[in-house]
Fold this protein.
Amino acid sequence: MKEHAVTIYDISKQAGVSIATVSRVLNGSDNVSEATRQKVLKAMEESGYTPNAFARGLGLNTMKTIGIMAADSSDPYLAKGIYFLEQLLRGEGYDCLLCCTGYSLKNRIASMELLITKKVDGIILVGSNFVYEDDADNKYILDAAAQVPVMLLNAALDAPNVYSITSDDYTSMYNAANMLISEGITDILYFFNSRSYSGRRKEAGFRDAMKAAGLSTGDGTLQFYRGNREDVPAMADLLEHVWDQGHHFEAVLASDDTLAISALKFAVRKGIKVPEELSVIGYNNSMLTACVTPELSSIDNRQETLCQHLTATLMGVLGGNEMPKQTVFAGELIRRGTTR
Amino acid sequence: MKEHAVTIYDISKQAGVSIATVSRVLNGSDNVSEATRQKVLKAMEESGYTPNAFARGLGLNTMKTIGIMAADSSDPYLAKGIYFLEQLLRGEGYDCLLCCTGYSLKNRIASMELLITKKVDGIILVGSNFVYEDDADNKYILDAAAQVPVMLLNAALDAPNVYSITSDDYTSMYNAANMLISEGITDILYFFNSRSYSGRRKEAGFRDAMKAAGLSTGDGTLQFYRGNREDVPAMADLLEHVWDQGHHFEAVLASDDTLAISALKFAVRKGIKVPEELSVIGYNNSMLTACVTPELSSIDNRQETLCQHLTATLMGVLGGNEMPKQTVFAGELIRRGTTR
DNA sequence: CTTGTTTGTGAAACCGCTTACATAATTTCT
DNA sequence: AGAAATTATGTAAGCGGTTTCACAAACAAG
């Protein structure tokens, strides 16, 4: 199959120069006379030469690869982030090694070690499920950061060589709740899934908005869904159960578009009119918002912008520059058909 | 940042053996006495040694990496495939280098070359957008296959060192159309997007089923949507336009769940009852099916099974075994709320 | 026409690990 | 007990590049 590969040595012979010279034109480095450069390039062309990436990596101590970790690359929101990052990094000449860890700490640690072993130039953690606020579990991130820069997308952690790019989930949620309240809606159900970094921020935003309005956030106004995120019907069941228990909420504020979609499903099932009798607001402004009727109002956390800044920051760090450790972007509620 | 890394040489000194011996325990190879093995392992443990992947790659000529190419990793269906593959390959000790090419041939070629340059052990093309039946564009795949095994998921190409794992799209679509016809539905709109390998197979299945029933597949029964797949509203507009032209179809057979979702959106907009007045069938049985009400009937092409077989086949090929060049799995229509 | 700089090139060391081959130590067999 | 076979370990030659350093050629200045 693999015929004996042509090496830099073959080129050097063919072009009648030393391997050092070949290496020089390869790296576009300093001083090579135009004549020799052409000779070498011609030899490369003719023999279809491709430098051996491993040898190169060994010498340069990098293979221009970034590790991307996500819990689940098929989650519509995470998938989008991965896609943006991949495109941006490719634009910078980097490739992406993808690691899906699921939601287990053990997998996170293993994947992180693996990426370090493979000598990636940097590691990006996509999604806040990696970072827990008051949790010693974050140690593995610090360990990794001792080796390569670690970028956090939608999570924040103050540690050396760790850079965080986040959207202001707290404020977004606060404002969304506030908006509902200002419309006279007081019985708001906060429907959430993840107790991760951003999950907690969102929750805090909701609670504070309610508190500021003198409303309760006691039993029933918070529902936590544990289970497979894709299981929309099961999530709808949960809401139906709550409703049937007698808690007839006027709005669902979801920490996630998928959860919001399930609220819509629940509403259709019970014949509850959206948005007249029930407002629903999702989070992430993912493609799912367009899949339902009426279309889902959702909080846009400007993922593409976050990814752009993350990439720029990472490139800066790799270039040896001082870079901001934390960057926060404001989110924005996109109003569509599920709010009045 | 990166303190001088500890190498095999340091370990050899610390354990009082030669580097060859260290390398041996590293690779779990042949004959190392238990005593020495322990000494070495201890030294490694103590100094936190990690073998240099580049040097390893240079020596072994592999870094246990598989390249995955997809048009768009954020497409819900492709994302799912990528996820399955990543998990399966990780289980086999391989990592995944992800390349999103968009829908341009130029990008496909560039990504392919890049993966070859990075010396992946194999390349997987996810989705049929890579392969066109009667198209010279496939040349780049053959070139790549001269270097490493190329696996096609949901596409087929008969060439050396190229392996195809596909679902039987032709038959699935034939059967789906047939089922609608048997229910007395004769005006079926085939709504599709891609003219790729599987796209053509699906179309052929639809046409043949119609022909077999003596129905026409002329103007109006085939609608091709060109544009951003995520733009559900725009796709719905197209259908609305067709409808308003006077073509009141009774069913939409979509080549894709996203297209089917847009048909549902169109139906709601026009007040057409699904499934009473309009049947809708999607393709891929993706998570989107659960997001709408009624839930979308869709053709399941058993993606997970395909991925499992693809991975197994690839591992076989890499292990030097003779493996089947083409594997086809039957699909299955999952009936939900959008069909009677 | 020297002398002092550039500029272009080659020789060789090195990156960290694998492995063929040689050798030493041990065991097995007659 | 000595030869043969086996097992354990070390030496050194790659793998295919990069890069330091030395040196020769070309050019500028005195």
Summary: Residues 5, 7-9, 19-20, 22-24, 26-27, 29, 51-52, 54-60 of chain B lie near DNA strand C (CB under 10 Å from a C1'). Chain B has a mean pLDDT of 93. The domain at 63-166+303-329 of chain B is CATH 3.40.50.2300 (Rossmann fold). Chain B touches chain A through 55 residues (CB under 8 Å).
